[in-house]
Amino acid sequence: MKESELIQLRNKVKNLEGIVTALLGQMTNLKDLSIGTLETLKRIPGYETALEQLKEDTQTDSSKTKDLIK
Question: Please, which pLDDT band fits residue 58 given cuts at 50, 70 and 90?
Answer without folding.
Answer: very high
